[in-house]
Amino acid sequence: MTQAHEMIRHLVEVIITPEHAERAESEEFRHAKERLKADGHYQCWVCGSTENLQVHHFGAEWSLENVTDFEKLKAFCEEWDPYGYGRLLRNQPMTTVDDVRNMLVLCQEHHTGVDHADGNSGTGIHSLTFPVWVIQKLAKQGEDPVPQNRETAEEVLKEIEKL
């Protein structure tokens, strides 16, 4: 086994967010949340928590709706289909990012993230690169390499080195 080590990266992300309407919960978004609840998906996709839940636009962010190619988004949501809605609704057009096929239920920790005392890390999809964020779901029990709420990098390193 390769020895574990802490890796700190400072990333710069550049994106131009087009002008868009003032953010408000659309009727489509409310229906999507209701459907996720009714279908038993209202728990964090990463950790299974039912506390502090939020709904994330996973394929195309709400603020980028004006530049979204909905045919491409529909195809993406059929490929990466965490709840099965992409296949189920494949014969229906997609016209908004608030479509249930573009939704992912996350707890606050795995959505907007929890910043750690070092100020250099977080746990949410808005804080981490996708490969680092998704390992929080895919890691073996007790081997999550991303420090979670109130964990230090040193504590996680010690746990992983024990394995």
**Number of strand segments:** 2
- First-to-last CA distance: 10 Å
Give helix and strand order, one letter per element, not per position.
HEHHEHHH
Oligomer: single chain
Structural commentary:
It is a single chain. With 163 residues, the protein is mainly alpha-helical. It has one domain (27-162). The chain is built from 6 helices and 2 strands, in the order αβααβααα. A two-stranded antiparallel sheet has the order 1-2. The longest helix is centred in the N-terminal third of the chain and has 12 residues, at 27-38. It is globular, with a radius of gyration of 18 Å. The termini are close together.
Key features?
globular, 6 helices, two-stranded antiparallel ribbon, single chain, 2 strands
Layout of helices and strands, plus pairs?
Blueprint (H helix, E strand, L loop, with lengths): L26 H12 L14 E5 L12 H10 L5 H4 L14 E5 H4 L18 H9 L14 H10 L1
Short description:
The protein is mostly helical. Helix content is 30%, strand content 6%. It has helices spanning 27-38, 70-79, 85-88, 108-111, 130-138, 153-162, and strands at 53-57, 103-107.
